[in-house]
Amino acid sequence: MISTAEYGATSWELSVQVDQKEGDESMRFKLRVKGDLHIGGLMLKLVEKIKAPQDWSDHALWWEQRNCWLLKTNWTLDKYGIQADAHLRYTPQHKPLLLQLPNMKTIKMTVSFSTVVFKTVTEICRILNIRRAEELSLLKPPDDPKKKKKKDKNTLEEDIWDINLNGGPGGTGPMYSKTMTATYDPENGMPMSATSLWFGENPLAESQPNLPPAELAKMYEPLSLVDKAENNAGWLDSSRSLMEQDIQDHDKLLLRFKYNVFFDLNPKYDAVRITQLYEQARWAILLEEIDCTEEEMLMFASLQYHICKLTMSSEPLDRSNQPEIDEVEAALSNLEVTLEGGQTDRILEDITDIPELADTLRLFRPKRLTLRPYKEYWFVFKDTTISYYKNKEASSGEPIEQFHLRGCEVVPDVNVTDKKFGIKLLIPVADGMNEVYIRCDNETQYAKWKAACILASKGKTMAYSSYKSEVKNIQSFLQMKSLAPPPGQAAPDLEAMDMNAECFVSPRYCKKHKTKQLTARILEAHQNIAHLSLMEAKMRFIQAWQSLPEFGINYYIVRFKGSKKDEILGISYNRLIRIDMSSGLPVTTWRFANMKQWNVNWEIRQVTIEFDQNVTIAFCCLSCDCKVVHEFIGGYIFLSTRSKDQNETLDEELFHKLTGGQE
Description:
alpha+beta
């Protein structure tokens, strides 16, 4: 037996604050402990001293000074390095959080503050029934000192939806409910039954009505590239918990689609996911977070009008017009594809039989001083290269010039109303980007050449099966942009529109046009898409958003090694873009496909990336922590490894390997 004096010499007093249930004041206890006491024993001792009959199973110890959870209950105080000066908190691991969804509605939800954000987001998406949770993450709202006072007033009035047992507003029942959980098929990762059966009629699967123009104008702020970079700085670290990132209970975070690769979108199972994606796209267009032309803005407006109309009609919940597919039939067709060696992007013909394009097109080089900007040449597109000649007869000889399109940027330069079908190519060269404009005569020619350019930029030829679907997508996109009514159809009746046309366009476009003009143009564009079902219209909106030149690019302010000025780095799902901050124009593009390796020097916070052909770049991040950029690069590479053969379970270890910091 140790005497009291001996025990006193080897033990010390440890102060622990105990957080009670919501609304109750916290209590502070002092415990006499020794260094060899394990964390589990400390919690047991604490609960015995509290003497409160309560379920403490969700509580865990939080070390204030070190900003970390003490979750390894078998570790001793000595192993953790805890001494008498440590401030510990015995606090619930699950705490309430305010989440603003992509549709701008705020929900209150109890989430884990002790697991890494990747797991927390997975759990949030499981409750909301959003598949492919790896595409989403949590973003801190940007700080705006001017609006802080206004915001404080607004939050009181905000309609907050409290997620509870029934999945409806109000009530404080337990959050976790088996009725709200999808049961996935282990073979193909699909939910066993359709969305409506396992979630009832989910309000998150319904699109929100558009805001009145006055309210929209309050939210609208013109955004420069620098503003966009600052807004992107707030992505949380997926490898650390909420508590470790100074998020407190009842804080507000934004749940957003972070990685712009939407895998396996299926109208039958993804009603919530598709609606929330549509909402994120809609707000990006309305608040001009992404640039689009006037023609495109009107096309998006007509789709929004159509979706609003269908949502408010008597049958808003027609998820899709697809007939129910018999499970046996689906399994047989899957087997057929497997036996044929079906792949999503296989080469159609033998490698010696790669299709070519040859036609008369017009060319413009901005850097060359010419009086007649566009000049006709005979163009030949072969493999991933465009060659042009003086005329067709000269095509048997040497070309005037060749453009190697691998790694280039393809930007549409189109106005369907004015019959302008142009393609702008930004081709990487040693000292930056070469700018080339090609003008086509008609929609069909444009669709074929643009699709070939897009594939060539990824290093693929027209022999790939995705070429034909790319051509079709471009043609349907052009058709939607056409503001002329289909042949044989009368001009629209302006009185037929029972909604304010100004709700469907950004505030800047409202100022440019009178309401009557807007109404007429939206109704004209609507005639081309009036046949679409609700789900088809949302899918078309998402696809049109994806085809915008700026889609999916996240901007960051960086300083490249050896450079004396700040620049913008754009990160997309397949490439990095170096952008001049003053002009906003791309300087160089680097493809992930050509990347050999990347690493981060955590001491000087510098990211170094090595590409093929001995190209190495290094930069420090100025607008955010370099971990944010590192996670984007690793995240996109991780998402490119997904395949439909996998079930819903992801290799989380690989994700953290590619995105986690080596600090």
